[in-house]
């Protein structure tokens, strides 16, 4: 009888070991992204509903965890999967892993929820400022953390937004930039929230409770304002309101106006200003060319100099 008990005990111990160890290994393997295209859902509480955010990935065959990760936030079309595929050749060329989160129009409808970050309960100047826990910007922090965990990234992490995504990125960096990243690239944004507490949101910061310390934190971030040299058209979609035109007659003028106003504000406060500005020569309002221009900064150009200026 004792022999039988010992045999059963041995089998039980062996089964337990076999159950625990392979399961741990499989779990670890599942977290690693495969080479090529892949797709993951991310649970996200911001937005109008609790639908998860789809994140589309592309991992070049030569990419390792020490290489850069490029997280691209969508333009006004919100077509993250299409843009990820458009950037696959760039991912291979610059050996960067691409992650494109999708901000659907169902979960983040209109400019209020995406470009303007749901800071107000209505789009435009007629809205009422909402509590910070209603803002959409927390999604950026969650996405960056999830991508880092999924990719095991040890190298540089860049977040990039073009057009509507550039608007979202610039307001995120000014009002709530807390993600652990090496650069926040705002490309070809159409118009801006100025660091002006006498002008109502979304054109200014009046009523937001943005303190001098908050501005100092924003100006200390690794922000890059990127412009296309040919992005001077006023064709739709382009905001031509008097308030937006006061910032400049095209996207490049507005970006320079915003950068200069922020730099001047930092000087007034006597705080460091770590932002940079750059021009992608030959690029109009083109997400692919702007993304490549941003990638080059981390592969070919020094980051301690203004690019193309």
From TrEMBL:
Keywords: Hydrolase. The keyword Cell membrane does not apply. GO terms for molecular function: hydrolase activity. InterPro entries: AB_hydrolase_fold. The keyword Hydrolase applies. This is Hydrolase. The lineage of its organism: Bacteria, Bacillati, Bacillota, Negativicutes, Veillonellales.
């Amino acid at each position: 009888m004792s022999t039988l008990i010992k045999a059963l005990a041995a089998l039980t111990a062996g089964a337990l070991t076999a159950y625990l160890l392979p399961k741990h290994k499989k779990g670890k393997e599942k977290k690693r992204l495969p080479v090529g295209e892949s797709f993951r859902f991310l649970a996200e509480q911001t937005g109008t509903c609790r639908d998860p955010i789809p994140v589309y990935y592309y991992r070049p065959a030569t990419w390792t965890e020490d290489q850069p990760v490029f997280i691209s936030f969508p333009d006004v079309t919100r077509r993250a999967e299409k843009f990820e595929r458009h950037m696959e050749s760039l991912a291979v060329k610059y050996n960067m892993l691409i992650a494109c989160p999708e901000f659907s129009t169902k979960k983040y409808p209109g400019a209020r929820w995406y470009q303007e970050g749901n800071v107000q309960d209505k789009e435009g100047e007629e809205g009422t400022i909402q509590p910070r826990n209603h803002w959409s910007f927390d999604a950026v922090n969650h996405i960056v953390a999830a991508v880092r965990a999924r990719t095991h990234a040890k190298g540089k992490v860049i977040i990039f937004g073009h057009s509507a995504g550039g608007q979202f990125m610039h307001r995120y960096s000014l009002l709530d930039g807390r993600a652990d990243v090496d650069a926040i690239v705002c490309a070809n944004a159409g118009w801006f929230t100025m660091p002006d507490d006498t002008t109502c949101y979304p054109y200014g910061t009046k009523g937001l409770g943005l303190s001098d310390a908050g501005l100092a934190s924003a100006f200390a971030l690794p922000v890059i304002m990127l412009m296309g040299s040919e992005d001077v058209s006023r064709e739709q979609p382009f905001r031509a309101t008097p308030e937006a035109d006061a910032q400049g007659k095209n996207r490049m003028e507005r970006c320079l106006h915003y950068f200069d106003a922020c730099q001047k504000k930092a000087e007034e406060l006597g705080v460091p200003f770590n932002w940079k500005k750059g021009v992608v020569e030959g690029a109009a309002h083109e997400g692919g060319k702007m993304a490549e221009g941003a990638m080059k900064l981390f592969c070919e150009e020094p980051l301690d100099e203004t690019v193309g200026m």
